[in-house]
Specification:
heterodimer; A: 118 residues; mainly alpha; 6 helices; B: 779 residues; alpha+beta; six-stranded antiparallel β-sheet; disordered N terminus
């Protein structure tokens, strides 16, 4: 659970200071230096999803809900609230992929050398 | 599908767009405050009233337009950007492939060159030149003062480019084309190829039957000057594959009328105007008051154009309806060979002027297009050594900005009419009203035509120049009746020597306004507003009894009989929540298709005779089943001969099916609202950025002008007097920001037909007393 809250805080900091591609990049870097299991990555991705949707919801509230109303129409969503689900899914997928991709260098490093004799 | 950094097709790039930091969620509304505005000579005060309408107070005229440009851009930049790209053929730079065909048409039609020539003409007038320059600099001051310009730019992932004066011209061209770009010459030529000349003249007559005629300028209708016969149209085009061009269709209209002092309850003239244009958010009009020491005017500007177009000053009110006179002709041109640019012009061969223009398309693709100008106009289509040239008066404007500027200081209807001397395009029916008198004038470059011209594609081999100007401007000044009116109907009757074309809007709105004006001895602003909100369906009154009489009730099921009973007792009011108008319009629409759909092949769209001709046909057949009009009733695609009863029944069943498709199987749930689907669409058709479907009363030929996607986007009533009072309604707020609560301001009132009182300030002090917000721009 602590990881979840840490993920929330970390995520909010990252998206506040980095450009839009920052969350994917940060997840990748985190995955490289702090490789974890699937369960941990899922927790972090889930916290990112919640944070992403919550921040959007907060900013939409400051705009009287008009951004979600219009943007949901733009994407053909039947309800304005569904745009926050889209936001959550976007963050979840991005962070999840970033974290999992971050494990690839380690996996390559650990893979056994090719012993095929020519 | 797009995902992060790249948009695909029309879809935006989700990554930058939906980022919670720096993305769409960080949207900030424009909040203007006291600031410096480069280029100003003296401070300009802008007062926003309780209706959120800006009032500009300046000491110098150029300062006024500079501030107007800045404020208009702050509210409507994206709209200005889009609309000024239409005739420039530059929409594809923003929207990609889907607008390429339209861009290609406007470029090939010479609109870019036309705009350049028009700009040079406008700039020859010092006052117009200075106004445009200051306005553009104001717009650009806004663009350069920010790095976020609204959600549409964010969604498209583009930045606005700086404006120039050509943008103003292209806005005027766009509106001119919309209003005066209508022509059915190529359609009629195709129909003529299918069925011959005489049937075309029968189905599309020059004038409506006498009892269905309503003319802006009355004339002796007994002595018909213009009687056409097949011999007037000997030329047969050899062009075989003329495509359909994206020309504006019929159905565009506006109303204006005015009563003089003698027909006004308080002894001062009253003026009303509602302009019917595409229903968009934001609205094409930008309401404001402009004040300098020389003038004080209130009304509506067109976005991207400095000054006001429609409105009033302390002495007069003015406003237009579209003139609808035919100003677009087509000529078949003959070239020396398929590859030559030398064309026949009388006895000689002339070299066409060829220009290259580049069409840029979002994503980096470019097309180089050749624009070929002949003396008849630019080429729109070519078939080997033959070609089609379009002659359009919109390419020949005069000094419209100067004309409008003259109105700001006009004090009488005579001065008002005098101002319009330099107005050429688009031809409009302008009403002028001062405190005592009223006048209406068919204003603009009226083409002088002879019989047989402007009906079909014409022979372009002669050396005649299209559209010699007529000096005549049909008008009514200080009428005995005490009122003037127009509703895009025919300007003059068959007894008038001037030939203006055949295709005007049906006379029903004009007839209804005339009836309502004559019904009362004296009028007031309240009675004018009632007229504007009238939803009487004249077409139904004239046709429904004939349709009902021809319908056999035994051929109907129980649900259908129930609705027929409802139609029998219907009061012809097009109410949004009633189903009777929905059933009528569905039935009537299919009846036209059933009668005329088999006569000729026009794949592009249904192009049928106009309503007065349809009504005459129904009357003729109902009185005499063997009338010669019965030839049209028969369905030529079947071996048997159909009667009008069969066609009426077929149309009813087809209309019923349409309603089921559109509104479901339960007729109790049907409504006119869901049939006509009135909504204000976003200027670039972004889904979700327009309004919902609105429960708007009024139908296609009614005074409210509700046509679903088209309607009365600007309504005004002015009571002239010692100090004018005005009531106005414009659906949509001053702001064009879709994320601003004011974006859909006034839409609800507009739907309900409520007008709001305009704040017409005598001076800046009065304005400040009633201000909601004051902003001072300083040098």
């Amino acid at each position: 659970m602590n990881l979840f809250y840490a993920g929330l805080i970390l995520y909010c900091l990252i998206v506040s200071f980095l450009p839009w591609w920052g969350m994917g990049m940060a997840a990748f870097v985190f995955g490289v230096f702090q490789p974890g299991d699937k369960k941990r990555d899922l927790q972090l991705a889930f916290s990112a999803a919640i944070a992403h949707a919550a921040l959007a919801f907060y900013k939409d509230g400051r705009n009287l809900g008009l951004i979600s109303k219009r943007m949901s129409g733009l994407f053909g969503l039947p309800q304005p609230e569904l745009i926050f689900l889209v936001m959550a899914v976007l963050a979840f997928v991005t962070v999840w992929l970033g974290l999992r991709a971050g494990k690839i260098p380690e996996a390559i490093r650990k893979s056994p050398p090719d012993r095929t004799e020519h | 599908m797009c995902f992060l950094g790249w948009g695909v097709g029309s879809l935006p790039a989700l990554g930058p767009l939906l980022a919670v930091s720096g993305g769409i969620w960080d949207h900030q509304r424009v909040e203007l405050s006291d600031q410096k505005l480069p280029g100003l000579r003296q401070p300009v005060t802008v007062i926003w009233d309780q209706n959120r309408v800006p009032h500009f107070f300046a000491e110098e005229e150029s300062d006024l337009y500079r501030a107007q440009g800045f404020v208009m851009a702050s509210q409507r930049l994206f709209q200005m950007d889009v609309l000024t790209r239409v005739t420039a053929g530059r929409l594809s730079e923003l929207f990609g492939e889907k607008t390429v065909a339209r861009d290609r048409f406007f470029i090939k039609f010479g609109m870019r060159e036309s705009a350049r020539r028009t700009l040079a003409r406008y700039q020859s007038d010092e006052r117009s030149r200075s106004a445009m320059k200051a306005f553009v600099e104001g717009v650009n001051a806004f663009i350069t003062s920010r790095n976020y310009w609204g959600p549409e730019y964010k969604i498209l992932g583009v930045k606005p480019e700086l404006f120039d004066e050509l943008r103003i011209i292209h806005m005027a061209k766009q509106l001119t084309f919309n209003l005066a770009g209508r022509s059915y010459d190529t359609y009629l030529s195709k129909i003529k190829q299918d069925i011959g000349v005489e049937p075309v003249l029968d189905l599309f007559p020059l004038f409506d039957p006498a009892d269905l005629g309503d003319y802006i300028v009355s004339s002796d209708s007994k002595n018909q000057v213009h009687v056409e016969s097949a011999g007037d149209f000997p030329f047969v085009t050899r062009l075989q594959n003329v495509p359909y061009f994206p020309l504006p269709g019929a159905g565009q209209g506006s109303n204006n009328w005015a009563v003089s002092a003698k027909k006004s309850a308080n002894g001062f003239s009253i003026f009303a105007n509602d302009t019917h244009l595409s229903l968009t958010l934001p609205n094409i009009w930008f309401e404001s008051q402009l004040v300098i020491p020389e003038f004080n005017v209130y009304g509506a500007s067109l976005v991207a154009i400095p000054g006001l177009i429609n409105g009033f000053n302390p002495f007069i009110a003015w406003g237009p309806t579209n003139g609808t006179t035919d100003v677009f002709d087509f000529y078949e041109m003959e070239f020396e060979s398929a590859s030559s640019n030398r064309y026949r012009n009388g006895e000689e061969w002339l070299e066409a002027e060829v220009q290259s223009e580049v069409l840029k398309i979002r994503g980096g693709r470019e097309e180089t297009l050749e624009v070929v100008w002949t003396k008849k106009g630019p080429l729109l289509h070519r078939e080997n050594e033959l070609a089609l040239a379009g002659a359009w008066i919109g390419h020949q404007p005069d000094q419209e900005l100067r004309a409008v500027r003259g109105l700001y200081q006009a004090k009488s209807i005579d001065e008002c009419l005098e101002s319009f001397k330099s107005w050429a395009v688009p031809i409009q029916n302008f009403i002028c009203a001062d405190a005592k008198d009223v006048a209406i004038q068919h204003t603009g470059f009226i083409p002088k035509r002879s019989r047989g011209q402007g009906r079909f594609i014409m022979d372009g081999r002669s050396d005649e120049i299209p559209f010699p100007a007529s000096a005549e401007r049909p008008k009514v000044v200080r009428p005995e009746s005490g009122f003037v009116l127009s509703a895009n109907q025919k300007v003059v009757g068959p007894g008038h020597p001037l030939y203006l074309g055949w295709d005007f809007e049906p006379p029903f709105r004009g007839m209804r306004i005339r009836e309502l004006l004559m019904k009362k001895e004296k009028h007031s602003p309240e009675s004018f507003i009632e007229i504007q909100n009238d939803i009487f369906n004249t077409v139904a009154k004239l046709t429904l009894p004939l349709m009902l009489a021809a319908l056999d009730p035994d051929s109907l099921n129980e649900q259908q009989r129930e609705i027929i009973d409802e139609l029998r007792s219907w009061d012809y009011q097009d109410r949004a929540l009633d189903r009777a108008p929905a059933v009528f319009w569905a039935w009537y629409g299919r009846l036209k298709a059933a009668i005329f759909g088999d006569e000729y092949q026009l794949p592009a769209r249904e192009f049928f005779p106009r309503d007065p001709r349809v009504i005459a046909l129904l009357r003729n057949i109902s009185q005499d089943p063997n009338h010669r009009d019965s030839v049209w009733v028969d369905d030529k695609l079947t071996p048997q001969k159909e009667s009008v009863k069969e066609m009426v029944a077929r149309a009813f069943q087809e209309g019923w099916s349409r309603l089921e498709e559109k509104q479901g199987k339960d007729p109790k749930q049907w409504s006119f609202k869901d049939w006509i689907q009135t909504r204000l669409q976003h200027i670039a058709f972004f889904p979700g950025f327009g309004s919902e479907v609105l429960p708007m009363d009024g139908g296609y030929q009614g005074l409210r002008g509700n046509k679903g996607r088209h309607g009365a986007v600007y309504k005004i009533v002015v009571q002239l007097g010692e100090w004018p009072e005005a009531w106005i309604q414009i659906p949509g707020g001053s702001t064009g920001d879709p994320f601003d609560p004011d974006y859909e301001r006034h839409v609800g009132d507009w739907v309900e037909g409520r007008m709001r009182k305009a704040f017409y300030f005598k001076n800046i002090e009065e304005g400040k007393e009633q201000a909601a917000k004051v902003v001072v721009f300083s040098p």
